[in-house]
Amino acid sequence: MKILHASAEYFPYIKMGGLADMLASLTKEQAKTEEVYVALPYIGGLGKSPQWTGREYPALLPNDAKTDSLVVSILKNSKFLEAEESGVKLYFFQSDLFQSLNSVYGHAEEHFRFAMFSYACYALSQILKVDVFHAHDWHTAIALTLQKDSANPIPSVFTIHNLAYQGDHPFWMTGFLKEEPFRLITSPFDHDGKCNYMKAGILSADKITTVSPGYREETLSEPNGFGLSYCLQQRSGDYRGILNGIDSEEWNPNKDKRIYKTYSAKDWKEGKLKNKTELFKEIGRPSLPLDVPLVGLIGRLTHQKGFPTFLQAFSERRHLPHRYVVLGSGEPEMEKTFYYLSETFPDVFYFYKGYNENLAHKIEAASDFFLMPSLFEPCGLNQMYSHNYGTIPIVSRVGGLKDTVEESNIPSYKTGIVFEPNDAGSLGYALERAKDLFGSQERDIVVKNIMDLDWSWKKRKLEYDLVYTKAIELKI
Ligand code: ADP
Ligand code: GLC
C-alpha cells in the first residue's frame, strides 16, 4: 500500500509537540511493510538537514495551472524536494511561504500558508497516485476537501491530534478558497461565523481518527468537542480512537545516548541514582537530596497542560519532601511563575525555560515520578516514555492519560497514580501517595510493571491498516 501523510510536524525536522513524535514513529513502523511518504513544509529552521535524493515534484496539477492568479503563480514557483529517513520518503514543500520561517506555527497569514500547503499535498497525492491520503490536524485539512471534490478522489483519513486548535478564520480572509485552483464551496465549514479548517477536515475525510479511545469519547460532547462535537457526532460511525504508539528505540533507557548512564529493568535503581546525581550537577544544584522523590514535568506551558492546578497543590503541600524539575516554554505568565519559584525555592524547584530534547531525556531518566496535570489530553506521550524509563507517571484522569495509566489496588496491575483533573486537592493527595510509594517495596513491583509495558507501534499500527482498508472499500 502507498500511503501519503500530510503534516506540519515530523521529528526531528519540525517538532513543536507530540504530533512530530507520533508521526515519525508511526511511519517508521509502517515503512517496514508499506511504501510510506510524508509531505512537510520546508521551513528555514529545520531540526536536521535532510538526506536529499535529488528528485523533485510539482506542487500544482497541470489542469490547475491554466489560469494565472496570484495563488496559482505561487504554487507554480513552489515544489516538493524528496528526501529519505528510516525507509520513509519525505517531501519538503519548498516555497517562499515557508522558507523564511524559523518555526512552523505562530505567524500571521497561517490560514493562507497552510491552505496552500494543503493544496500542494493534495496535488502530490494525485501525482504519486497513492492508495491512501492521511492528513493530520487542521493545517492539512483543506487537502481532504480538495480530495473529496476531485475527479479522482483518493481514499482519505483525517487524524485529530488536538481539537483545541481548529484553524478558524473570518470568511473575509479565506475568500481565496473559492478561487482557482481551490474552487471550494466554503459555507459548510462555517462554525460560529468563521471558516473552520478542522470542520472542513471532519466533514470531508472518508474516515476520521483521534489519538486515543478515551479522547474520542470526550470529543463527542462539550466542552471537549471545542464546539465541534455536533460534527463529530454526525460522523461517529466513521470516527475511531486509536491510541498512539511511541518510538521505543528513541525512548529506550538501555540505548539512550542522551542520558548520563543507560540502564534496564535489572539495574534501574543504580541507573536512576546516577542520572539523578548527574542531572543535579548539570542544573547547578549538586546538593539536592537523592533520597526523596524527584518529580519531572515537561511540556508546553499552555492552558491544556493544567500547570496552575499543580502550582496550587504545590503551595498547599509544602510539607512534602518532593523536588521538582520543570522543562517548558509557553505562556509568559506561567514562565514567570515557574521562574519565580525556581529563584525563591532553589532547594526544591528547578525550572528550565525553553525547548531542549536532550534535557527531556535526562529528566525522564533521573526522575522517580513524572507529573502530567492536563485539563484535557488527546493522548500524551510522556506518560508512555516515563513507563519505559521506570518513571512512575502521576496523571489526571483524562483522554489518553486515563487509557494508559492505571492506579490499581492490585500492585501487579498498577502502572501509575491517577487524580481528578483541575482539582488541586486530588493532585495533592496523589503527591502524598507518591511519597508513600517511593519508600515502599511496592515501588519495585510498579517499576517492573511499567518497564515491561510495550507501547510501540508494532501491534497498534494494524488499527490504522484497518482504517485504511475501510477507507479504500468506501471508494470501490
Ligand atoms: P503535546 O503534543 O500536547 O505537546 P505530548 O505529550 O503528546 O503533548 O508530546 C509532547 C512532546 O514534546 C513530548 O515528547 C515532550 O517531551 C516534548 N516537549 C514538550 N515541551 C518540551 C520542551 N520544552 N523541551 C523538550 N521537549 C518538550
Ligand atoms: C497533540 C495532543 C497530545 C498528543 C499529540 C500526538 O499535540 O495534545 O495529547 O499526544 O498530539 O498525537
TrEMBL record:
EC number: 2.4.1.21
GO biological process: glycogen biosynthetic process
Pathway: Glycan biosynthesis; glycogen biosynthesis
Superkingdom assignment: Bacteria
Catalytic reactions of this protein: [(1->4)-alpha-D-glucosyl](n) + ADP-alpha-D-glucose = [(1->4)-alpha-D-glucosyl](n+1) + ADP + H(+)
Sequence ranges assigned to domain Glycosyl transferase family in this UniProt record: 288-434
GO MF entry, a single one: alpha-1,4-glucan glucosyltransferase (ADP-glucose donor) activity
Residues covered by the Starch synthase catalytic domain: 2-233
Transmembrane segments: none
UniProt keyword Isomerase, yes or no: no
Enzyme class: transferase
Keywords: Glycogen biosynthesis, Glycosyltransferase, Transferase
UniProt keyword Signal, yes or no: no
Residues binding ADP-alpha-D-glucose, per UniProt: 15
Pfam family, one: Glyco_transf_5
Family statement: Belongs to the glycosyltransferase 1 family. Bacterial/plant glycogen synthase subfamily.
NCBIfam families, per the entry: glgA
Role this protein plays: Synthesizes alpha-1,4-glucan chains using ADP-glucose.
PANTHER family for this protein: ALPHA AMYLASE DOMAIN-CONTAINING PROTEIN (PTHR45825:SF11), GRANULE-BOUND STARCH SYNTHASE 1, CHLOROPLASTIC/AMYLOPLASTIC (PTHR45825)
Protein name: Glycogen synthase
